[in-house]
Amino acid sequence: MSKYLVNLKINNMPVSVEEGTTILEAARKLNFRIPTLCNHPDLTVAGNCRVCVVEVKGSRLLAAACATPVSEGMEVFTNSEKVRVSRKHIVELLLSEHNADCTKCFKNGRCELQDLASEYRIGDHVFLDLVKPESKILDISSPSIVKDDSKCIRCQRCVRTCTELQGVSALGVVNKGDHQRISTFFNKPLHEVVCTNCGQCINRCPTGALTERNYIEEVWNAIYNPSKFVVVQTAPATRIALGEDLGIAVGERVTGKMVAALKKLGFSKVLDTDFTADLTIMEEGTELLTRLKKALVDKDESVVLPMMTSCSPGWIKFQEHMYPELLDNLSTCKSPQQMFGAVAKTYYADKINIKAQDMVVVSIMPCVAKKFECERPEMRDSGYQDVDYVLTTRELAMMIKQAGIDFDKLEDEHYDSILGESTGAAVIFGATGGVMEAALRTAYEIVTGREVPFTNLNIKPVRGMEGIKEASVKIKGVKPEWDFLEGVELNVAIAHGLANARALMEKVRTGEASYHFIEIMGCPGGCLGGGGQPIPTSPEIRKKRAEAIYAEDSEMIIRKSHENPEVAEIYQQFLGEPLGHKSHDLLHTHYKPRKRY
Amino acid sequence: MLTTEALVKELVEKNGRSRNSLMPILQGIVQKEHYLSEEALLSVAKELDLSAADVYGTASFYTFLDTVPRGKNIIRVCKTITCHMKGKDEVINALSNALKIKVGETTHDKKFTLLTANCLGWCHKGPVMLVNDEVYPDLTPQKALEIIEEYGKEAK
Ligand code: SF4
Ligand code: SF4
Ligand code: SF4
Ligand code: FES
Ligand code: FES
Fold this sequence. Notes:
The complex is a heterodimer of chains A (597) and B (156).
Chain A lengths: L4 E6 L2 E6 L4 H7 L23 E4 L6 E2 L10 E3 L3 H16 L15 H8 L18 E2 L5 E4 L8 H9 L6 E3 L6 E3 L16 H5 L5 E3 L3 H9 L4 E6 L20 H11 L3 E4 H24 L10 E2 L4 H10 L13 H16 L7 E7 L3 H5 L15 E4 H10 L21 H4 L6 H15 L19 E7 L14 E8 L1 H12 L7 E5 L17 H17 L9 H11 L5 H7 L10
Parallel strand pairs in A: 1-5, 11-12, 11-14, 13-18, 14-15, 17-18
Antiparallel strand pairs in A: 1-2, 3-4, 3-5, 6-7, 7-10, 8-9, 16-17
Helix pairs in contact in A: 8-10, 8-14
Chain B lengths: L3 H12 L6 H12 L4 H11 L3 H10 L11 E6 L2 H5 L2 H12 L12 E6 L11 E3 L2 E3 L4 H14 L2
Parallel strand pairs in B: 1-2
Antiparallel strand pairs in B: 1-3, 3-4
Helix pairs in contact in B: 1-2, 1-3, 2-3, 3-4, 6-7
The complex binds iron/sulfur cluster (SF4) (3 copies) and FE2/S2 (inorganic) cluster (2 copies).
The site of one iron/sulfur cluster has 13 residues of chain A, from helix 4.
């Protein structure tokens, strides 16, 4: 249905836009930028910060551009005297309640409020300083997230993120008027409540009120410590986004430069989580086929389907809080990050003759939930904490800047070996649908001896940004040992963003849909939209990152996990076989129910 | 007395499970238990399938939905300008001395909590106080003391 066009003028320039467009969007069309704070492209309109005010001819009051739809004949002024004075006052009022110690703030230089203050040259104290002592509440209980209420402007982007995108609502608005705060249930510390540590709120907080717990100093200390052997692993989605924080365009791949930078920073070995992503596929693919056999042939009632992926620690914690009755559906496979830690401090340490206690494993992750994951008590199967520190893509960018490295000028370098070899199947772990695609590429071939029946191995139905995707693959021409799968229609589903996961879980719980295998990623778009990725984020940015991921896959020489030679080697020399004894000890885990508040 | 969980179940049966039922359910709990405990808010969240933080946020918005333990009788003296000019301070002082608590506190025997409130709409007959749901206009310190003495007797 085509919509009516509305004609209006902005700063005396005529423009026609579809009915229902906001003044803000119409102004963008004419390249007039109106500042915003509470507005975000991923969220519903709140209209509470008022920095986007504009003058509409004939109206006494200023209008919030983000929340006011255009109308026929409207005349808007985005920079009249009245607008400018009010906007400046609004920023001054926000700052009068703000603990503006920018030089000590983690958001210094990357803060939307600071940008506005700088743009409007806020200098004198026009309004009284009203920072209340009781607002100085700092919550550092979570290993992933720091919440500093004295930096909060109550725009509620975090609340909308946690509810609309993540379906968690760990954060809410409490009290009213000048006592209003963003808080958890009964003001409990974040680590006690349903917060999944996904960090999506961090990605959308315009100020320093929500930031990641950073471990930059700890990692520098490890690097400078001569008695430590510091290995670093990089997650699939870091290589397609790191550049954004270092002056490179969105969607540009920087794999080789990232490796070069990590070597320059002084890590002893630069290795790849993609290697353990391939290992995950071997374990998880085998687990799926085993479960199918037990359920379909042996009629073993203790085996539950659908099996659900377990790579995303935000999703795991979500499930522990929200659907504890479905924990048996989760694959027992650890995430690739944790598989890496466990084999690094055993198999790899032995091979290179380093004692596990002298090894420090650092992860570069697009994720802040990984910081929580590495501290889980289950993640110590090497006898030590398997992964010592997790840095976000953003923290790595900061280290690169601190080291004075001119990132753009770096020559590409290669990952070290071993634990550095990977495939196209591993890199697509970074996009929603990627684990599913990688698993299908391998499982189908194990069962039939032939490649998946999709052009160039590209399983298009599981790709894309739709919230919940469904697909079926008909299995034909199986090898004799898999004859029970002949003709079986394998039903799979994929969800990204926990609100979508929740909708899918409701379907599973009520029995409305029956799937064999489900992939869930906690963050919108999958890891490429992770809570540790460069800020800002938006649907367009995530789309470009996804394109970069699939481009990386298509250029890899090996594109199926089971063909990774280092994976074959680790099974031959160390693990034995997928789901074998050693795998069980090092690569698999268990989950625990948690309270829902 | 009903357990909190049973009380919530009963109120949910009566008011329904939609988001709109949240307020009457919370009010119902306050009527029986004088305040909203963690346990109470958690069972409401569970029954209505709402997030606990959301339920807590709603409760914290309303002055009359307390989330800290309160006495059996809640005294709220109007603190807004008209009552202020008509002598609410004297009333508060008298109550505070008699009950040996400050504003915001609850007596040891849990019989009384002393609070202030914003304008109660009785300005023409100020100073005014509310004890539970009952309005008492035209107060003097003496009158206020007599009123709570009566409540003290009942609350045995
Ligand atoms: S949140 Fe922004 S404005 Fe506030 S102290 Fe930090 S950098 Fe400065
Ligand atoms: S924590 Fe950040 S996103 Fe949330 S209300 Fe405060 S400033 Fe806004
Ligand atoms: S980290 Fe995720 S779950 Fe936790 S408060 Fe933020 S958005 Fe909600
Ligand atoms: S951006 Fe429009 S009111 Fe906040
Ligand atoms: S000022 Fe006290 S009732 Fe209005």
